[in-house]
Design a protein that fits this description.
463 residues; five-stranded mixed sheet; five-stranded parallel sheet; 11 helices; 12 strands; binds adenosine-5'-diphosphate
Length: 463
């Protein structure tokens, strides 16, 4: 600014002198000002020529430093978010573990009582046991839904898609929702196009999607109503629709029902149970498969229609996905043989003992920590080891590894039992040397069948 003003002054002065024609008669003080101004101008030009680059660079350096500071702050926030996300996952895994452990006792013992393995129950007692079992199953479903939502949001669910026959999956869904449908006298009608192509999907996730949609349709239908499952092909996509003539959904609610925990009915006036997580899971699972899902309704009291699409498979359907055969009866296959039960939870220990002794006719040897298990296994080789993974001291994984390393126990089948229920725990257990894995809570029948098949595989392998 100063230089500009000086140059302006010189310019004005020179112009005045030229205009008045008295350059020669100028006062000495004005000549000095001219000289000073000229010197300043030359100095400015010289300095700017030499140091201008530095001045510009200094500006860039300042901007760069500012951006660098911002980037560091962002990286710090990111790191903090990542840490919080990890903490959230750990917290959820821990909470689900802590909830599943007591649920194992509730589910297991109520199932054992329902089997009437230890004496006959009166019809009233049977009814109450059924109610306990159903309640525990609902709690378990809720825990699974909470874990699923959090894993889906964090992008931690991986699909194992394969070519499937939708008809088989729909049959399986039918068996899951039958009890609820019968209780409300709701008829489920299935109308699938005759030339339905195989669909490319993860079987258990596709079943989860359908169980949620059909379960909702049953829940929100008026008693005695009808729920329809329809499917057809549209170019490279297969569409599936679940329709009901029930309570319907107001137009302005159609966008919100997909949010986790959102329910149209106000919490205090709700007539229908549920956590509000089902549709959030459905949407994320369908999108993970590369499909889209949408809800339609003509309004309250006018029914609803939920439609989703999935990619058509390019290979023939995998028939091994069909698991609707009735389960085999449980035989006393252990016939007096020893099973080592490694479990630190008293109630679960006793449940496992009941499975080994009362259902499979074996003999259970109990221990509640890893070192003791290794010692007992070395003393007398068991026919099978039931191994909890979360043990105090030596972990279940380490116990499995050591059993495999020791020639005396390397051939003993090991079934890992865990309340962690994440796929990585299952993988790591198998990797450590376990032959099978069962997640808590399990029913006595499930565990008994798994033990029988593991022993059978072992016997076939030994022959
Ligand atoms: P939940 O069924 O456990 O409440 P969802 O996420 O499955 O949770 O559904 C969210 C909400 O969407 C439900 O509470 C209900 O208000 C509405 N909704 C879902 N399906 C239907 C349906 N078939 N008919 C009417 N309303 C439905």
């Amino acid at each position: 600014m100063v230089f500009c003003l000086v140059f302006l002054a010189i310019g004005v002065r020179a112009a005045v002198r030229v205009w008045t024609g008295n350059v020669a008669t100028a006062e000495p003080v004005l000549v000095v000002v001219d000289w000073l101004a000229a010197a300043a101008a030359v100095a400015f030009l010289t300095l700017h020529g030499r140091y201008g680059v530095l001045i510009d660079n200094a500006e860039m350096v300042r901007e760069y430093a500012e951006k660098d500071r911002e980037a560091r702050a962002l990286a710090q926030v990111n790191e903090e978010l990542r840490r919080l996300d990890e903490l959230k996952s750990e917290f959820l895994a821990m909470v689900s573990h802590e909830l599943r452990t007591p649920l194992t006792a509730i589910v297991g013992y109520s199932r054992l009582l329902l089997r009437q393995a230890h004496g006959t129950l009166t019809p009233k007692q049977l009814e109450h046991q059924e109610a306990i079992f159903r309640g525990a199953q609902r709690l378990n479903d809720l825990i699974n839904d909470l874990l699923d939502v959090s894993r889906l949001e964090a992008g931690r669910i991986e699909l194992t898609p394969r070519a499937l026959n939708l008809r088989h999956i729909v049959e399986q869904v039918g068996t899951v929702v039958t009890a609820a449908a019968q209780a409300r006298r709701i008829h489920i009608r299935t109308v699938l196009a005759a030339d339905l192509p195989p669909v490319q999907a993860d079987p258990s996730r596709l079943q989860q999607i359908l169980v949620n949609l059909v379960g909702n349709a049953v829940k929100f239908s008026t008693p005695g109503g009808e729920v329809r499952i329809l499917a057809g092909r549209q170019r490279e996509q297969l569409w599936v629709a679940v329709e009901d003539d029930g309570v319907g959904i107001a137009k302005d609610e159609l966008g919100r029902i997909w949010d986790p925990f959102y329910q149209v009915e106000a919490p205090m006036r709700r007539r229908h149970g549920g956590s509000g997580l089902g549709l959030a899971i459905v949407r994320r699972l369908v999108e993970l498969h590369g499909g889209i899902v949408r809800a339609e309704s003509e309004g309250e009291g006018r029914g609803s229609r939920f439609t989703f699409t999935l990619p058509v498979a390019t290979t023939p359907a995998d028939t091994s996905a069909r698991t609707t055969e009735p389960p085999l009866p449980i035989e006393p296959v252990l016939a007096g043989r020893d099973v080592l039960v490694v479990e630190d939870e008293r109630a679960t220990q006793e449940l496992m003992r009941a499975v080994v002794e009362d259902l499979l006719g074996g003999h259970a040897r109990m221990c509640d920590h890893g070192e003791h298990c290794l010692q007992l296994a070395r003393e007398r080789t068991p026919a099978l080891v039931l191994l909890d993974l979360m043990l105090p001291g030596l972990s279940g994984w380490e116990v499995a590894r050591r059993l495999r390393q020791d020639p005396r126990t390397s051939g003993v089948p090991i079934i890992a039992v865990s309340a962690l229920a994440r796929s990585q725990e299952r993988e790591s257990a198998l990797h450590a040397g376990c032959d099978a894995y069962v997640a808590k809570p399990f029913t006595p029948d499930e565990l008994a069948r798994l033990m029988a098949t593991t022993l059978e595989t072992q016997d076939v392998g030994a022959r």
